[in-house]
């Protein structure tokens, strides 16, 4: 065993001093006192105390970077799913234990106080959470980086269930303000919309002038992002929209008091609410305006900073700036940068285009056609008339100079690669725009990156060999192990260096312990204690009693047909049926745990939630099966709930149809915390199996090639329905009133979708899935074998540290070097 290095430098403060600081803030910042303060006030007072360290770090980091004229990456993302910030900030500053002790001495459990913090849910799912992990890693690696996004007033909706059905309620994360944000009015920007473009002829040449129909203000809110160890503190800059003129006094004076507000109401709508669709293109004008609003404000911010340092000498622009597009959502930033360089700075098109391409890179997160954004050409023309012209010009030059040169006279390829789609009225393909305007394009797991090259952009890949790359996703081990699983972290620290949250490969030192029965017992005792804790959460949230001795079988992710929560459901029904047929059916008791939000307009996803809730109601209350199966659907799944559930999970269900899940990141969090993956050969599951060893995961179902083959042969779900007695019986159950007494047919939509269409081949994979579930059952009953597999998973997941992902981006895409902030 190697010596223990200190991980996070401990700040220069004692428990006593921390207590005094908290009390000082309680009194002087919160205006209350110890005897009277609510838990929320204590929470805010701790945040204010922690901010004393953080704000200092923000200025130190800024100063260092400005002084060195540092190259920086700007990470543009419509979503940042941050969750809570307090515990992460305490951990990264090395203050957690100190704060814990201080609060104990004041008569509180820190964990209790932390519960007061609302989640910052400014994202839908994987893509938004990835952005949050990535900015943690950028700060940890001391990379000069800034995240840019939208300061939504309402994040992702709060989910409730009413009679088994999902109901959406508004999220209010800022109802009482947030201690973590700093408003920076001095960096306000103006964003233009609508209007028309004039061609001005002058001095024998011409240029374009955009006369906008309206303008609005973009106000930046900065959220400090503390790197692990606390050296560098980067910021996440979120833009809030406001009316240009807050109040029209002329209208007011002429008696139009209410009208005076209308402009402000419209402008404020832009940052009002996050679109709740994950992987579906909303296609709404307001969404396009959101995308442009934050892209334009961010580009303007980059330009402001650059001009402050270099005036109008743009020769160093590309050397100092990288712009990363998180999916196509900010793709409009490409023509926006062209507009600023050409129209405002007077740079030639050719020069500006070279700069733009060298600056941008694009991450693709999906192959699903419904997620690949396309905007009606007319809509862009109306909202952003100058940008539409620029897109036409980019496209014309691309087709003429690059496509025509490579494939002379080939109109078929031109049609396919064009940024403009001629079918369905004219549409602007944001994926094509992103590829054409970037110097690098990456997928998010090896198989996904291969499919991006092979199926999505094969000609583009031929045109620009080397442009398409893979960067496998990752997760931050600070939040997803150290902070969320203190018991396991403590156990680990008895055996590995204390800086494992930074260098996750240090966990390989646990591998030899996988066969050590003492360690196995300790490891499984941690899991059991985490499960005992979660039993209480389940009781509180769902009023269902479960036993920590059962297998905790977990599927947590957005609800989508391709993720196949209904495959899980079919198996639950089959198990239940087996128990009804034979009460002695041999199985280890199991708790099936779901967490998932459905997009409010996604009919079938909502029907699947309803079906799971109805089956749960019946199964949980049927004395005949003697508690062998319990099913719980946790309402309002979110980051803070994931942090409690993941450490308690035994089985991690990653059961998407092969080829559909680009990567997945929940799979990494669960495996790191010792859950056994039950999964298809999809996304990062493949790499998890490679790292942990195939014997330590349970793989089932068709692989990508078999999926293609099955489809080519004319997939017929009815065949599986007719030929599998158990499958037929459970699907028919959905048509009856067995789970919805007195109301037959309430669950039929799910059945008929599967039997008649089954776009994600649930029925084809059913038998293989059921067999894999039997393997899980057998493995769990071999206690030593299970413990061994779980330990090996924890010990083998270093590859999925988001620090590794970010290092890959820095090396292969951004060409970015760390710059450690100067000490005080
Ligand atoms: O992005 C994750 C992947 C996951 C993929 C997800 C995603 C969204 O959450 C939203 C839109 C989109 O195009 C993709 O589904 O597989 O792990 C982060 O890369």
UniProtKB/TrEMBL annotation:
<keyword id="KW-0321">Glycogen metabolism</keyword>
<dbReference type="InterPro" id="IPR011833">
    <property type="entry name" value="Glycg_phsphrylas"/>
</dbReference>
<comment type="function">
    <text>Allosteric enzyme that catalyzes the rate-limiting step in glycogen catabolism, the phosphorolytic cleavage of glycogen to produce glucose-1-phosphate, and plays a central role in maintaining cellular and organismal glucose homeostasis.</text>
</comment>
<dbReference type="GO" id="GO:0005980">
    <property type="term" value="P:glycogen catabolic process"/>
</dbReference>
<keyword id="KW-0119">Carbohydrate metabolism</keyword>
<dbReference type="GO" id="GO:0008184">
    <property type="term" value="F:glycogen phosphorylase activity"/>
</dbReference>
<keyword id="KW-0808">Transferase</keyword>
<protein>
    <recommendedName>
        <fullName>Alpha-1,4 glucan phosphorylase</fullName>
        <ecNumber>2.4.1.1</ecNumber>
    </recommendedName>
</protein>
<feature type="modified residue" description="N6-(pyridoxal phosphate)lysine">
    <location>
        <position position="669"/>
    </location>
</feature>
<dbReference type="GO" id="GO:0005737">
    <property type="term" value="C:cytoplasm"/>
</dbReference>
<dbReference type="Pfam" id="PF00343">
    <property type="entry name" value="Phosphorylase"/>
</dbReference>
<comment type="function">
    <text>Phosphorylase is an important allosteric enzyme in carbohydrate metabolism. Enzymes from different sources differ in their regulatory mechanisms and in their natural substrates. However, all known phosphorylases share catalytic and structural properties.</text>
</comment>
<dbReference type="GO" id="GO:0030170">
    <property type="term" value="F:pyridoxal phosphate binding"/>
</dbReference>
<dbReference type="InterPro" id="IPR000811">
    <property type="entry name" value="Glyco_trans_35"/>
</dbReference>
<dbReference type="InterPro" id="IPR035090">
    <property type="entry name" value="Pyridoxal_P_attach_site"/>
</dbReference>
<keyword id="KW-0328">Glycosyltransferase</keyword>
<keyword id="KW-0663">Pyridoxal phosphate</keyword>
<comment type="similarity">
    <text>Belongs to the glycogen phosphorylase family.</text>
</comment>
């Amino acid at each position: 065993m190697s010596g223990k290095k200190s991980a996070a430098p401990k700040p220069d403060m004692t428990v006593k001093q921390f207590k005094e600081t908290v009390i000082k803030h309680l009194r002087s910042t919160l205006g209350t006192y110890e005897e009277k303060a609510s838990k929320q006030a204590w929470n805010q007072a701790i945040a204010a105390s922690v901010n004393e360290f953080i704000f200092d770090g923000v200025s130190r980091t800024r100063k260092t970077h400005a002084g060195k004229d540092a190259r920086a990456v700007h990470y543009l993302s419509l979503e940042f799913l941050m969750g809570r910030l307090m515990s992460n900030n305490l951990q990264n500053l090395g203050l957690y234990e100190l704060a814990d002790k201080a609060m104990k001495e004041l008569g509180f459990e820190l964990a209790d106080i932390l519960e007061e913090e609302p989640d910052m849910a400014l994202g839908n799912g994987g893509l938004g959470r990835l952005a949050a992990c990535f900015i943690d890693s950028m700060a940890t690696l001391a990379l000069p980086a800034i995240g840019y996004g939208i300061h939504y007033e309402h994040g992702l909706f709060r989910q409730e269930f009413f009679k088994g059905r999902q109901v959406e309620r508004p999220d209010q994360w800022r109802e009482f303000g947030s201690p973590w944000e700093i408003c920076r009015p001095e960096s306000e920007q103006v964003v233009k919309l609508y209007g028309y473009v004039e061609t001005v002829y002058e001095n024998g040449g011409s240029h374009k002038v955009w006369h906008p129909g309206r303008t609005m203000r973009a106000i930046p809110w900065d959220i400090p992002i503390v790197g692990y160890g606390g050296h560098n503190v980067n910021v996440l800059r979120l833009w809030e929209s406001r009316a240009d003129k807050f109040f029209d006094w002329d209208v007011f004076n002429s008696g139009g008091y209410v009208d005076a507000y209308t402009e402000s109401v419209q402008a404020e709508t832009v940052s009002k609410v996050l679109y709740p669709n994950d992987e579906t293109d909303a296609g709404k004008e307001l969404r396009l305006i959101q995308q442009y609003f934050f892209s334009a404000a961010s580009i303007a911010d980059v330009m402001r900073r650059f001009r402050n340092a270099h005036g109008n000498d743009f020769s160093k622009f590309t050397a100092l700036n990288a712009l990363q597009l998180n999916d196509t959502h900010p793709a409009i930033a490409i023509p926006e940068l062209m507009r600023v360089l050409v129209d405002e700075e007077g740079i030639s098109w050719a020069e500006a285009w070279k700069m733009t391409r060298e600056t941008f890179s694009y991450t693709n997160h999906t192959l699903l056609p419904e997620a690949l954004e396309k905007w009606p050409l007319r809509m862009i023309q109306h909202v952003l008339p100058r940008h539409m012209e620029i897109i036409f010009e980019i496209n014309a030059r691309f087709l003429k100079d690059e496509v025509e040169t490579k494939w002379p006279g080939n109109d078929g390829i031109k049609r396919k690669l064009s940024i403009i789609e001629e079918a369905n009225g004219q549409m602007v393909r944001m994926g094509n725009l992103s590829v054409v305007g970037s110097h690098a394009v990456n997928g998010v797991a090896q198989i996904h990156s291969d499919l991006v090259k092979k199926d999505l952009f094969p000609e583009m890949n031929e045109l620009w060999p080397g442009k398409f790359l893979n960067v496998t996703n990752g997760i931050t081990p600070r939040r997803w192990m150290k902070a969320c699983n203190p018991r396991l972290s403590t156990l680990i620290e008895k055996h590995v260096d204390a800086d494992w949250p930074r260098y996750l490969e240090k966990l390989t030192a646990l591998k030899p312990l996988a066969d050590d029965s003492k360690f196995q017992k300790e490891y499984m005792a941690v899991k059991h204690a985490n499960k005992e804790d979660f039993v209480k959460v389940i009781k509180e949230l769902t009023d269902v009693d479960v036993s920590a001795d059962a297998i905790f079988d977990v599927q947590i992710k957005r609800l989508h047909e391709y993720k196949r929560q209904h495959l899980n459901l079919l198996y639950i029904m089959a198990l239940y049926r087996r128990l009804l047929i034979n009460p002695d059916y041999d199985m280890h008791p199991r708790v099936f745990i779901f967490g998932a939000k459905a997009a409010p307009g996604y009919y079938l996803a909502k029907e699947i939630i309803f079906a799971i809730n109805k089956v749960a109601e019946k199964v949980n209350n049927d004395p005949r099966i003697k508690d062998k199966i319990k099913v719980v659907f946790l309402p309002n799944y979110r980051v803070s709930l994931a942090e409690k559930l993941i450490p308690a999970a035994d089985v991690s269900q990653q059961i998407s149809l092969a080829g559909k899940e680009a990567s997945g990141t929940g799979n990494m969090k669960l495996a790191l915390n010792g859950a056994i993956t039950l999964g298809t050969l999809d996304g990062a599951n493949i790499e998890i199996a490679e790292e942990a060893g195939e014997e330590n995961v349970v793989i089932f179902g068709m692989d990508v090639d078999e999926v293609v083959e099955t489809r080519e042969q004319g997939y017929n779900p009815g065949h599986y329905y007719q030929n599998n007695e158990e499958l037929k019986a459970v699907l028919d159950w959905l048509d009856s009133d067995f789970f919805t007494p007195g109301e037959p047919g309430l669950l039929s939509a799910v059945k008929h979708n599967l039997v008649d269409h089954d776009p994600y081949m649930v029925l084809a994979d059913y038998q293989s899935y059921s067999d894999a579930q039997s393997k899980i059952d057998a493995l769990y009953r071999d206690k030593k074998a299970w413990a061994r597999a779980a330990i090996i998973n924890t010990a083998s997941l270093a590859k999925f540290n988001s620090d590794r992902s970010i290092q890959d981006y820095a090396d292969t895409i951004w060409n970015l070097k760390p710059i450690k902030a100067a000490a005080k």
